[in-house]
Design brief:
This protein is α+β, with helices and mostly antiparallel strands and 303 residues long. It contains ten helices and twelve strands. Strands 1, 2, 3, 4, 5, 6, 8 and 12 form an eight-stranded mixed β-sheet that branches. It is globular. The protein starts with a strand and ends with a strand. The structure holds cytidine-5'-monophosphate. Cytidine-5'-monophosphate binds next to β2 and α5. Its EC number is 2.7.1.148.
């Protein structure tokens, strides 16, 4: 085999509870991850040396050097195997770049799965997740897919059974937000307002809504502690969120560290209507529909 293609989904956080800043610069989280049907595709081809090329809408915003998370993941895997493997990675991007949907982590996860296959390593998922956790906090979930509760930095995962499919609209913003900058702004707001960060707890009503597949209840429980910080850094997001609520979204939330906004619809046709309304209001660069949960990385499929 000299080429392997892996399709990998984006994520949205249904609950992101951010605890106090730790000594290592990270925050303890409760992070309810949910994989949705917006996909990047990574093709790994046998090659001497490591290289990466990025195609797609926002390809220009993704580094094509050693800072690329997919290359870092492939290098970490080769290092783990103790061999000087080479690979050429082609990333076809649909997941918004620096959009709060873990696009970089998804590409790293896809690279791990593709290179594991290409190099015939046969490592189990648990090993890939451990290697992935060093690349980024969201990489283990990107390897898992579905819906899961993350604790620690977000890398310790418990999969969740979900009782149905949810229909989403994602409002894509012009340009990205830096994840460290949004966490830092969250800390700054807490300090300025004298708010003590509580120890993060999973929301039982939210987990229950997921188990029952109850979109209305889920919409009411969506919660993101990073939202005030993302809105502070990108004021226009307040208007985007309001527009979704005015058009009947069951829940409206900034996705992860933003600036993508996620809206829960009560059906697929409602999602299509909502996306059209957001586009017509001019509150986003684009609005796309998706469903979740979807499985994690899939080998040999095209989007
Ligand atoms: O793990 P990852 O490299 O994706 O994290 C990017 C940045 O997000 C970290 O450098 C840190 O500033 C912030 N972060 C955090 N707490 C977490 C996860 C990420 O503060 N649990």
């Amino acid at each position: 085999m000299n080429s392997v293609t892996v399709r990998v989904p984006a994520k949205v956080n249904l609950q992101l509870a951010v605890g106090p800043l730790r000594d290592d610069g990270y925050h303890d989280l409760v992070n309810v991850f949910h994989a949705v049907s917006i996909f990047d595709e990574v093709t790994a081809t046998a090659e001497t040396g490591m290289r990466v090329r990025v195609e797609g809408d926002s390809a220009g915003q993704v580094p094509e050097d050693d800072d690329n998370l997919a290359i870092r993941a492939a290098s970490a895997l080769a290092h783990h195997a103790g061999r000087s493997y080479g690979v050429s990675l082609l990333i076809r991007k649909s997941i918004p770049v620096a959009g709060g949907m873990a696009g970089g982590s998804a590409d790293a996860a896809a690279a791990l799965v593709a290179c594991n296959e290409l190099w015939g390593l046969g490592l189990p998922l648990a090993d890939l997740m451990e290697i992935g956790a060093d690349i980024g906090s969201d990489v283990p979930f990107a390897l898992l897919g579905g819906t899961a509760v993350g604790t620690g930095r977000g890398e310790r995962l418990t999969p969740l059974e979900v009782g149905g499919t949810f229909h989403w609209v994602f409002a894509l913003a012009e340009g990205g937000l830096s994840t460290p900058a949004v966490y830092a702004e969250c800390d700054r707001i807490r300090e300025a307002t004298g708010t003590e960060a509580a120890w993060p707890q999973a929301s039982e009503p939210l987990l229950d809504a997921l188990r029952r597949g109850d979109a209305k209840a889920l919409g009411a429980e969506l919660a993101n502690d990073l939202q005030p910080a993302a809105v502070m850094l990108r004021r226009s997001l307040a208007r985007t969120l309001d527009a979704g609520r005015e058009h009947g979204a069951l829940g409206a939330i900034v996705s992860g560290s933003g600036p993508t906004c996620a809206f829960l619809a009560d059906s697929e046709p409602h999602a299509v209507e909502l996306a059209a309304a957001l586009r017509a209001e001019g509150v986003a660069r684009d609005a796309v529909t998706a469903h979740g949960p979807v499985p994690g990385p899939a080998v040999g499929q095209r989007p």
